[in-house]
Amino acid sequence: MDAVTQFGHESIKVGSKSFALASRVLPPELRDDASMLYAWCRYCDDVIDGQEMGHGQIEDYKVGQEARLEGLRDATKSALAGTPTDNPVFAGLARVVQTHSIDHKHPFELLKGFEMDATDRVYETVDDILDYSYHVAGVVGVMMANIMGVRDAETLDRASDLGLAFQLTNIARDVIDDAKADRIFVPQDLLRAAGAPLSSDEIAKRENWPSVHEAASAQLDLAEQYYASAKVGIKELPFRCAWAISAALSVYREIGQTLRRGGPSAWEGRVGASSTKKIRLATRAVMPTLIRGTVLKTPRDGFYKRP
Asked: Is the Cα torsion angle 51, 55, 58, 60 positive or negative in sign?
């Protein structure tokens, strides 16, 4: 295993234990490429948010954010143009994009999502947050599907749906931490409907968590629709790929279920499943994988349409 591939594996191992667990059942060559793509996505996210592997946050992370974004665009453009680089993040991206003939527009769609972070986009409606979720997660699903050999638009739509479901779940889990960092991703429409405040300072106050939890739960209801749609696409994947994605779906969906069961007090700690439960969920994902051919094809009327 060369240094570029090793860096990808270390990134996913540290950055996301859930995705690292799910990726273990992929064929080795696909696991390598999925890890390298993850490493680039994780790195770009960290550069924009002033974090390291998705954790911690420098106090003045907003300072210079747009300049950092432009630097990411330049480095990505250079790597995709074939310019040699010693940076394993961009070397890995270039290798994966070339190997799997991934459309160059997709990495830049992800960076477009980070631009929304840098410019403090306000998410007024569900459509707004779906657009954001596509750019920071749905397009990652598309690229991961490309790595698994998917090329037809219909299945790529379902892969995008899974990325959207993951991001909607992420937002619900992190709503209080985001508010403390002066960020709001639950759309204002859902907050208003729940009688929740619209300012980050008020969202962060413990007395307002019940109404915020109601809004977050409404967003999880939306995520459930996208999880269901994603299962239609999983049936098109070969067994090991389908098992990996089914495992990721089960483990990530549990985050939302834990938040529902725990109520507002769930935000007092890190919302998620234990390592033991993750392993159990990943193992149980074998059965839905084996019977994936029985999943009924459902329409995507009203769902987000990829650009």
From this structure: positive
